[in-house]
Automatic annotation (TrEMBL):
It holds the Pfam family DNA_pol_A_exo1. This is 3'-5' exonuclease. GO terms for molecular function: 3'-5' exonuclease activity; nucleic acid binding. Gene3D superfamilies: Ribonuclease H-like superfamily/Ribonuclease H (3.30.420.10). It comes from Bacteroides luti.
């Protein structure tokens, strides 16, 4: 497999769209959270992401509205604006036996810590994880496009994540982001173990000297 170092927005625009095709489960009560964590604790690696209601007023911000946690087949959407931050969810993030994979995790955790204090453990930051493979881009959309030749839609990014009911498009968007983090990690782990990849060579332009 040839791993590109970078990709352009024009390249991505021509690619087919990827969407999570597994089961999306909304978590709106603490009881729901307990059942979800019981399921997630069976997995060794999980993809995670978060969403926050955008603010269009200078100086005003909102707390994290949603935390997405994905396996290959399921994605749980924890509606933090409704349920707060249950202890079982803290226990999951602090569990050193489960790998949590995401992108821009520093920002995610800074925002999550505004809700509750906890010490996340065994987390993989994809922006750092991709570097040994020669990938220079840092956005989830570009990293995924480089590796899979598909684009992640960002059309719902600035939607209202504290709406009474999240639309099917919002749910799909949120689940896809967490799930694609997991897919990237899984593929790169396989490539690392097999060595079955090469970095795309960057050809520097030749600048000819002008005749004096």
């Amino acid at each position: 497999m040839i791993v590109k170092r970078t990709i352009t927005k024009d390249d991505i625009s021509e690619m087919p769209k990827v969407t999570f095709d597994g089961k999306i489960i909304m978590i709106c009560t603490e009881k729901d959270a307990e059942r979800a964590i019981e399921f997630l604790n069976k997995y060794a690696v999980l993809g995670i992401d978060s969403e926050t209601k955008p603010s269009f007023v200078k100086g005003k911000s909102h707390k994290v509205s949603l935390l997405q946690v994905a396996t290959d087949t399921h994605c749980f959407l924890f509606r933090l604006n409704l349920i707060g931050f249950p202890k079982v969810l803290i226990d999951l993030l602090e569990n050193p036996s489960i790998v949590k994979v995401g992108l821009s995790l520093k920002d995610d955790f800074l925002a999550l810590h505004r809700r509750v204090s906890f010490k996340q453990q065994n987390c993989i930051e994809l922006q750092e994880f991709v570097k040994p493979f020669g990938i220079q881009d840092k956005s989830l959309q570009k990293i995924y496009a480089i590796l899979f030749g598909q684009k992640i839609s960002k059309s719902q990014r600035l939607s209202n994540w504290e709406a009474e009911t999240l639309s099917p498009s919002q749910q799909q968007y949120a689940a896809t982001d967490a799930w694609t983090c997991l897919k990237i990690y899984t593929l790169l782990q396989e490539l690392h173990q097999t060595g079955d990849y090469v970095k795309e060579e960057i050809v520097e332009p030749v600048i000819e000297e002008k005749e004096k």
